[in-house]
């Protein structure tokens, strides 16, 4: 009987790869080509993972999420999907949870999304980008109003 592969959190992958990078820095002289390939793969993976929400996860936030998810009767793989991908829409939930339409009501899906967003820390930059986006929208509205005033006065808009 084949053993099923263990599921792993993206945060754990990030930690392991950083440890490998540190060890490789001290192991110069070993099979150069293998070391070079491993360094490239680990660098690219770490660079990618550092741009995902897993960089902000802590053991405490993960434990809190798992505790909050217990009433939903999800499988380990489904919990891992939620942890790794941090869904924000019902469609994403449907893609991550098998037979979600039969297993969960709309209210439960909304609650699930709320649990994920409150338990897992988001990226602070996302909040800043949203605020900057609102400021840009306000500036565009002001510019449009100024242009309308110039047109009404017979100006050329400059």
UniProtKB/TrEMBL annotation:
One of its GO terms (cellular component) is RNA polymerase III complex. One of its GO terms (biological process) is transcription initiation at RNA polymerase III promoter. Residues 120-158 are annotated as: Disordered. Residues 1-123 form the RNA polymerase Rpb4/RPC9 core domain. It comes from the Eukaryota. It is a peripheral membrane protein. Pfam families: RNA_pol_Rpb4 (PF03874). Accessory protein for the calcitonin gene-related peptide (CGRP) receptor. It modulates CGRP responsiveness in a variety of tissues. Component of the RNA polymerase III complex consisting of 17 subunits: a ten-subunit horseshoe-shaped catalytic core composed of POLR3A/RPC1, POLR3B/RPC2, POLR1C/RPAC1, POLR1D/RPAC2, POLR3K/RPC10, POLR2E/RPABC1, POLR2F/RPABC2, POLR2H/RPABC3, POLR2K/RPABC4 and POLR2L/RPABC5; a mobile stalk composed of two subunits POLR3H/RPC8 and CRCP/RPC9, protruding from the core and functioning primarily in transcription initiation; and additional subunits homologous to general transcription factors of the RNA polymerase II machinery, POLR3C/RPC3-POLR3F/RPC6-POLR3G/RPC7 heterotrimer required for transcription initiation and POLR3D/RPC4-POLR3E/RPC5 heterodimer involved in both transcription initiation and termination. This is DNA-directed RNA polymerase III subunit RPC9.
């Amino acid at each position: 009987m084949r053993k099923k592969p263990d599921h792993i959190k993206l945060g754990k992958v990030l930690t392991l790869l950083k440890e490998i990078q540190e060890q490789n820095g001290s192991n110069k002289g070993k099979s150069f080509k293998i070391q070079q390939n491993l360094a490239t793969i680990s660098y690219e993976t770490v660079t990618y993972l550092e741009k995902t929400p897993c960089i902000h996860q802590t053991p405490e936030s993960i434990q809190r999420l798992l505790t909050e998810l217990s009433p939903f009767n999800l499988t380990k793989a489904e919990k891992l999907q939620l942890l790794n991908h941090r869904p924000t829409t019902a469609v994403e939930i449907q893609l991550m949870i098998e037979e979600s339409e039969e297993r969960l009501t709309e209210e439960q899906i909304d609650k699930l999304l709320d649990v994920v967003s409150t338990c897992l820390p988001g990226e602070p930059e996302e909040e800043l980008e949203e605020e900057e986006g609102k400021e840009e929208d306000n500036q565009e509205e002001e510019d449009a109003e100024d242009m309308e005033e110039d047109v009404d006065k017979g100006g050329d808009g400059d």
